[in-house]
Structure formats: structure tokens, C-alpha cells
TrEMBL record:
The keyword Signal does not apply. This is 3-oxoacyl-[acyl-carrier-protein] synthase 1. It catalyses: a fatty acyl-[ACP] + malonyl-[ACP] + H(+) = a 3-oxoacyl-[ACP] + holo-[ACP] + CO2; (3Z)-decenoyl-[ACP] + malonyl-[ACP] + H(+) = 3-oxo-(5Z)-dodecenoyl-[ACP] + holo-[ACP] + CO2. It comes from Christiangramia echinicola. Signal peptide: none annotated.
């Protein structure tokens, strides 16, 4: 029989809060983490605002030794290690100090690109003929699997330890990859998640594409406006999120706290056919992904209480809503609640899926639905499809039984995960 999979630990480094409790409070208070950065202004960016977790030196010293911090110049690794170790501790798991690793525990931790600032530093040193000054950690900081390697060594995991990369879909995909490994009995627990570097060398390409807002440099917190008529592009962000997935029997045996159950999901691609492209989703693929996620999870569309969408504050928001109505065959007042975290954090790129999944799980566990920041002027094309009440402007106290979380990424790749309240 397939194993049931539950979530027993979480950790997060998001633009609007670092640490799970802080993040939960930020969601309830609808706190924005989007700020102005003078560096972007100095570099002549059109969009001079972004979302970036605030990490103090004191906090860094709690997770890294002085030796590890020497030459560390990868923000994605910093965010990933903080969120991953926090998730492990939150699950009540020990960090092994033995010679033998934990053969039952593994890691799937994704990223888009890692160590861009370290790459830049390395290029200058190499071009100047100073290769020996690169240091011994330049490779691990710039290889994509550097984050899973870092965490694997810290936690002593002996099961599969790897990295996935699927643009904005990365974090949600990592959860489903870990889910399948546990469900099949190949692991008892998997630390899953994703991270993204911050800075101009990550965000510059998007600024060049003119898909970032440039009218809110003096009012950053108003800039990210999912499902809004006045939305003018997504605000770039960064950070990391991590979740401990565990075999239900293992969780019960050790008396672990259970946040919710993962019922299943689906990943697919639109093949960049029809209306699908490198930057836009194939609508048929999105609909199929949603419907197959429900089928794989044995959930009826009418059982969905809430949706945490991809919803980036672009012209694609109304198209995404239409795809949800077609996939669920629900519209108007029959449509479930739907929200987007990106109003508070911006679009955290490869970290977005994991951070937003954590927000979704917190909603289920703490019985509320967070409001959509800056969504007061709802797009008329969306209101033709669903009632305004389905898009809450403020927090709603409400018990959620089943929630669908979606991520749709560059390259026309999709992932949908179905979470359910755990009832003993």
C-alpha cells in the first residue's frame, strides 16, 4: 500500500519575515517585505524595488561557523540553510553527530541559479590571474546542488540528496518529488524546498524584459498587485522555504506534530505549444495539471476550499483564474477562496513555490485565509468569472479542509499540490 505523507516541520526566510512564527504573524498582518534598494537605482534599473529577507550577523552566526562564513557569498545558500535547519528542528529531529548517516532521511532542495555574486567574484579573480585566491568553497557555492550538499552535510542525511530546477515551479515540484519518494517507501522522511539568490545579477534580466513595475519606486509596498486592475508587473524577490515530509507511520511513532497531509499532485509541461511559450503557460496544460492533481489525490473539485495561486500581478492573472474555473467547473459564487502571497513578498522566483506552500500549510493548520494585499481594485475580467468575495482583502478566520497550491514557471512548466487538514 502507498504510504501516507504528512508535513512535520517547516522553516522559511521570506522578504516579509524570517522564521516560521514571524512569517505566520506577517501573513495575518498582511505585512509587506518589498523595499527600495539604492543599488538598483545606481545601476539604472527601471524597477528599483524588490523583496529580500533581512538576515542579521547575529542570525548568521547561529547557523554557520566562522570557518563556513569565510568567503561565503551565496545568498541562496544562506537562506536555504537557515530555512532547512529550522524545518529540521521544527520537526523535532536531531542533527546526527555519528559516523553513520541517517539512511532513512533525504533532501530534495531546488534552486534556479546559485552563487551569482560568487561567480562574479570568481570571474574577476580569474581574469586577473589570481585563481588561487578563489578559496576552497567557490565550487560548492556556485554548483546548483550546492544547497542540497550543504544541508546534507549539516544534517547527515544518507538517503537521496539532490537538487531540482524548474524556474518558478521549483519549490512545488520538490515537494511532489519528495512526496513520491516517501509514498513509494524509499524514504521515511525528506527535507524538501527551494531557494533563490538576491541582487541585481538575478533581477537584471527581468528588468530588461520590462515586466517589472517602474511606477512604485517611491511607494514599494503598493507595487505588487496580484489580481488588480492596476497591476503593472511582478516585483522580484528572493529567499527560501523548507518542509519536512514524513511517512505518517514514522511521524506517529515518534509523536511528531503534524501540520497537514500531502494528498498528491501533478507536474506537466505545455511544450511551448499553442499559446504556451518560454514565458507564458499553455492553458490546456494548466487545466490538465489541475485536474490530474485532483485525480491523483482522489479529490472532487467541489471539495476544494481554497486556492493559493501562482498569480504574479501581470496580465496573466485573469487567464490563470479562467483556467481554474474551467478546471474545477466552478465559477461565480461557487468558486473557492483564492489568494496570492506575492502581494506581500513579490515573486521569489525559484523560492516562490516552497515559500508559498508554507504559507498555504500555515493557513490550514491555523485555520485562516490570508488577505490579498493591494487587491482592492480587482480586475474586471476576473470579476466576470468569480465573485469578489472569493478574493479576500483581509484575513478571514476559517477552517480549511483541502487547499490547492499551484506554480506555473518559465519554460511552460506546471505543478499543483493538494494539501489536506490532518484529522487524527
Amino acid at each position: 500500500m502507498p504510504k501516507r505523507v504528512v508535513i512535520t516541520g517547516m522553516g522559511v526566510a521570506a522578504p516579509n519575515a524570517v522564521g516560521l512564527s514571524n512569517f505566520n504573524n506577517a501573513l495575518k498582518q498582511m505585512k509587506s517585505g518589498i523595499r527600495f534598494f539604492s543599488q538598483l537605482q545606481d545601476l539604472n534599473f527601471s524597477c528599483q524595488i524588490a523583496g529580500k529577507p533581512e538576515i542579521s550577523k547575529e542570525l548568521l552566526n547561529e547557523y554557520f561557523t566562522p570557518l563556513q562564513l569565510r568567503g561565503l557569498n551565496s545568498s541562496g545558500i544562506v537562506y536555504g540553510v537557515i530555512s532547512g535547519v529550522d524545518a529540521w528542528n521544527d520537526a523535532g529531529l536531531d542533527i546526527l553527530e555519528t559516523e553513520s548517516p541517517d539512511w532513512d532521511s533525504g533532501i530534495i532542495f531546488g534552486t534556479g541559479i546559485l552563487g551569482v555574486d560568487k561567480f562574479r567574484e570568481a570571474i574577476h579573480l580569474i581574469d586577473e590571474g589570481k585563481t588561487r585566491r578563489l578559496g576552497s568553497t567557490s565550487v560548492v557555492q556556485t554548483m546548483a546542488s550546492g544547497i542540497s550538499a550543504y544541508l546534507g552535510g549539516i544534517l547527515g542525511c544518507g538517503n537521496q540528496v539532490t537538487t531540482n530546477s524548474s524556474a518558478c515551479t521549483t519549490g512545488t515540484e520538490a515537494i511532489l518529488m519528495g512526496f513520491e519518494r516517501i509514498q513509494s517507501g524509499k524514504a521515511k522522511r525528506m527535507l524538501v524546498g527551494s531557494c533563490s539568490d538576491h541582487g541585481p545579477y538575478i533581477w537584471g534580466g527581468f528588468d530588461a524584459m520590462r515586466i517589472l513595475p517602474n511606477k512604485y519606486n517611491d511607494d514599494p509596498e503598493k507595487a505588487s498587485r496580484p489580481m488588480s486592475e492596476s497591476a503593472s508587473g511582478f516585483v522580484p524577490g528572493s529567499g527560501a522555504g523548507a518542509l519536512v515530509l514524513e511517512d505518517l507511520d514514522s511521524a506517529l511513532e515518534r509523536g511528531a506534530r503534524i501540520y497537514c497531509e500531502v494528498l498528491g499532485g501533478e507536474v506537466n509541461s505545455g511544450g511551448q505549444r499553442a499559446e504556451g511559450s518560454m514565458t507564458a503557460a499553455n492553458n490546456e496544460a494548466v487545466i490538465r495539471c489541475i485536474q490530474n492533481a485532483l485525480k491523483n489525490s482522489e479529490v472532487d473539485p467541489n471539495e476544494i476550499d481554497s486556492i493559493n495561486g501562482h498569480l504574479t500581478a501581470t496580465t496573466r492573472d485573469s487567464v490563470e483564474i479562467e483556467n481554474w474555473t474551467r478546471a474545477l467547473n466552478r465559477r461565480g459564487e461557487d468558486f473557492p477562496y483564492i489568494n496570492s502571497l506575492k502581494g506581500m513578498t513579490g515573486h521569489c522566483l525559484s523560492a516562490s513555490g516552497s515559500i508559498e506552500c508554507i504559507a498555504s500549510v500555515l493557513e490550514i493548520y491555523n485555520e485562516y485565509i490570508f488577505g490579498n494585499l493591494n487587491g482592492e481594485d480587482k480586475h474586471p475580467d476576473i470579476l466576470k468569472l468569480i465573485d469578489a468575495e472569493s478574493i479576500p482583502d483581509t484575513k478571514i478566520e476559517r477552517k480549511i479542509n483541502i487547499l490547492a497550491k499551484a506554480s506555473f514557471g518559465f519554460g511552460d512548466v506546471n505543478a499543483v499540490t493538494i494539501f489536506k487538514r490532518y484529522i487524527t
